[in-house]
Amino acid sequence: MHTYSVRKVGVVGATGYSGVELVRRLANHPGADLVAAMGSAGSEPRRIPALRQIWDESVVPLDLDRLAALDAVFLAVPDTLAAEVGPALAARGPRVFDLSGAFRLRDKALRNRWYPHSPDPELPVTYGLTERYREELGEARLVACAGCYPTAAILSLQPLVAAGLLEPGIIVDAKSGVSGAGKTPTERTHFSEIHGSMAAYGLFSHRHGAEIEQEVGTDVTFVPHLVPLDRGILETIYARLRPGASAEDVTATLQAAYAGAAFVRLTGADLPEIKHVAHTNFCDIGWRVSPDGRQLVMVACIDNLVKGAAGQAIQNFNVAFGFPEALGLN
Ligand SMILES: NC(=O)c1ccc[n+]([C@@H]2O[C@H](COP(=O)([O-])OP(=O)(O)OC[C@H]3O[C@@H](n4cnc5c(N)ncnc54)[C@H](OP(=O)(O)O)[C@@H]3O)[C@@H](O)[C@H]2O)c1
C-alpha cells in the first residue's frame, strides 16, 4: 500500500454547501489530515449531521492563528471574506485554495468591477483549473479555484478557441441547480419560487461572464438560468466553425487536449446529462456539428459542488502537493 506524506489542512466555511463537500472528501483523503473545520467567527461549535461516522468532529469558530500553522487552507466562504483573509493567510505560510471568485480575475479593472472588495493581491495568484494550470500549481501559494459555470465553459471552449476553429459570437446557455447560490435562501431560490419553474438571470451582468472570457480568450454571450434541481450544471454552447474547420478538427482538438485527463470525459455525439456527473468530479463534454458542417453545439455537465467547487479545489491541492491528481476524489 502506498503511503503519502500527510499534510495538515483546514476548511473555512465547513457548514456551507461547498464546505461540507470538502470535509466529506478531505476526511478520507490519504494525503490530508483535516485538523480544523471552521465557520463564522463567534458561532457555536456545530456538528455536520450529514457526515455522521464520516467526520464526527465539530465545526468551530474562525481562528486565523490556528489556520496559519497548517500546510493548506481551503476557503469556502463569501468572496468578501476570502478577499480579506486569503492573501493574509497565504503570506503567513499555508497554501490557500480559495473557492470564491475574489482573485480569479487578473485584470484589475474587471476585478474592481465584479469583486470591489478584493485588493490587488500582494503575491501571485494561480487560476485553479488543474487541466489548464497544472504546471503553475506546484509553486502556487494562493489558488483562485475556477468558478462553477466557468469550469464547464472553459473546458469545452478553450482548446477550440486556441486552435482557431471557432468564429466570434459564441453563446453559453447555462443551467444550474439551486445549491449554486449557497445555503442561505433568497426569494429567487426559495423552494416555492423555483419548484416547477425556471428563470434566466444575470444577463450581461453575471461575474462569471468575465471569468469565462478571461480563460477562453474571446467574447462570449453567457446566459445563466436557475433550474429546479438541487445540484448540477448543464451548459449548451453554440458556436460557428470557421471556414475550413471541420467536425473532425473539433474531435481531434478535444481528444488531444484531454488525452489522459483524469476528470474530463469526452462523450462525442452521446450528449451528457447532469445525472451522469452528480456527486463526481467529472466534467462530461459532448458535441455535434450540423449537417452543413458549420454549426457546432456542445453540451457540458458538471456537479457544481464537486468539479465546480470542492472536488476542483482538492484536485488543485493534489497537484500542488505532488499527490496523484485523483487522490481522495474517486
Ligand atoms: N455553491 C456552489 O456551487 C459554488 C461553486 C463554486 C464556488 N462557490 C464559492 O464558494 C464559496 C462558498 O460557497 P457556498 O455556496 O458553499 O456557500 P454557503 O453554502 O453559503 O456557505 C458559506 C459558508 O461560509 C461561512 N461564512 C460566512 N461568513 C463567514 C465569516 N464571516 N467567517 C467565517 N465563515 C463565514 C458560513 O459559515 P456559517 O455557517 O457560520 O455562517 C458557511 O460555512 C463562495 O465564495 C462561492 O461563491 C460556490
Structure description:
By secondary structure, this protein is α/β, with parallel strands linked by helices. The protein has two domains: about 5-145 and about 310-320, NAD(P)-binding Rossmann-like Domain (Rossmann fold, 3-Layer(aba) Sandwich); about 150-305, Dihydrodipicolinate Reductase, domain 2 (2-Layer Sandwich). Helix content is about 30%, strand content about 25%. The chain has eleven helices and 14 strands. It has helices at about 15-25, 65-70, 80-90, 110-115, 130-135, 150-160, 190-195, 205-215, 245-255, 275, 305-320; strands at about 5-10, 30-40, 60, 70-75, 95-100, 125-130, 140-145, 170-175, 200, 220-225, 235-240, 265-270, 285-290, 295-300. It has a seven-stranded parallel β-sheet with strand order 3-2-1-4-5-7-6, with helices on both faces. Helix 6 (about 150-160) packs parallel to helix 8. The mean pLDDT is about 95. Bound molecules: NADP nicotinamide-adenine-dinucleotide phosphate. NADP nicotinamide-adenine-dinucleotide phosphate (NAP) binds near residues 15 and 183.
What are the key terms here?
330 residues; Dihydrodipicolinate Reductase, domain 2; 7-stranded parallel β-sheet; 14 strands; binds NADP nicotinamide-adenine-dinucleotide phosphate
Query: Helix segment count?
Result: 11
Strand order of the largest sheet: 3-2-1-4-5-7-6
Described by the principal axes of the CA atoms, the overall outline is globular
Helix fraction?
25-40%
Domain unit count: 2
Order of helices and strands: EHEEHEHEHEHEHEHEHEEHEHEEH
The percent range for strand residues is 15-25%
* CATH homology group of the largest domain: Dihydrodipicolinate Reductase, domain 2
Supply Rg.
Answer: 19 Å
N-to-C span: 17 Å
Class derived from helix and strand content: alpha/beta
- Using the coordinates above, name the CATH class of the largest domain: Alpha Beta
Bound molecules: NADP nicotinamide-adenine-dinucleotide phosphate
The CATH architecture name of the largest domain reads: 2-Layer Sandwich
Main pleated-sheet profile? 7 strands, parallel
Mean pLDDT rating? 97
